[in-house]
Amino acid sequence: MLVIPLITGSASAVTDGETIWAHLASLIVVGGMILMFAVYTGYTAKRRTKDANGSCLYKWGPTILVFISAFLISANNLRQVLQDNHLWADSNARGFMGPGLLEASTAYQCADAGKCCPATDPQYGKLPMMTVYDKSCNQTGTDWKTTCEHVDLPWDFACNAGKAEHYLTDFLAKECKVKEGVMMAGVPWGCSVKGAKTNQDALVKLTNWTYIFGVVEGKNGSTDRGTYRGDADTKACVAAKIPIGNCGLFPVVLGTGCHFNMVLSCLGGTGALITFGGSYLGFLLLMVGSLWNAKICTKVNQAKYQWDALRAAEAGKQVKAAGCGPGG
Fold first, then answer.
1. Does residue 311 belong to any structural domain of this protein?
2. Which residues of the chain fall below pLDDT 70?
3. Taking Cα atoms as reference points, which of 162, 159, 154 lies closest to residue 111?
4. What is the DSSP string of 113-144?
């Protein structure tokens, strides 16, 4: 059976290869382009001279600002690359500061009971975090999502799962019912797998994997999937009629419970510092350096002077025309 990895929205999720390369490409391309522009501003600095006080700031100021902006703007991409390669550990600690400022690479607050859990956001709160369907079901027609056997994983459960293992075990031990609970706007969620007594039974039937036995610790404490913890789990898998090769799936998303809304109000300390003190400040410096390098103030003054001259010339024509009129 097809295995559905539950990694959507997790701060600690195992990053796939395409995403890793995308982060690295963004770091190289964006950072490289801004550095090239900084070199260009340095090359064109010869067009500028020192100011009246003999200061070099007027000449080299744009280059300095653009160089600084390249590193600030690249800070978030660098954070992602370091996190992808386990060189800067992430964390499922909750709260604005979490494990401490810059102690972890996690940008957003791990979800808890509050606005940063998607269960409280209308955008997500009307839908489950994920629904695992029976892939052998005939998915034709418009009603297959309700007629095919499935198990809903609600957001509030996913947000709490990382607090303690009992949140996961409690959910898996719950009776498989079509309406196990209600989400926002009165939308029900539940389990519709026939013959399954519990959610655990239903998930095993749908995927032929276990969703509880086994967890392995990776580099820097990150959670990985696919390894079970030993003889006890082997016996449990055998009892559940799960092939040993499939024994040990412990979804990262449920192992950490780090679900969040990626909005400014849910930034953690590290994320806020890198976003405002890095990306936003970097783009501001890049804008100032670019306009300074283009001598925008001089050009604005020239445009204002030309406008005033045109207005004065037009006013003179009007005065002259009025003086040549009857009785002038």
1. no
2. 1-17, 49-55, 113, 138-146, 165, 208-234, 236-237, 240, 242-257, 317-328
3. 159
4. SSTTSGGGSHHHHTS-SEEEE-TTS---SS-H
Phi, psi dihedrals of residue 133, rounded to the nearest 5°: -100, 160
Closest CA to 11 of 82, 93, 74: 93
Residues 255 and 118 in one domain: yes
Q: Quote the pLDDT of residue 217.
A: 41
Residue 199 in contact with residue 174, Cβ under 8 Å? yes
pTM higher than 0.85, yes or no?
Answer: no
DSSP 150: E
Closest to 167 in 3D by CA, of 246, 251, 238, 242: 251
Please report the pLDDT score of residue 75 as a whole number.
94
Sign of CA dihedral 77, 78, 79, 83: positive
| Residues 21 and 118 reside in one and the same domain | no
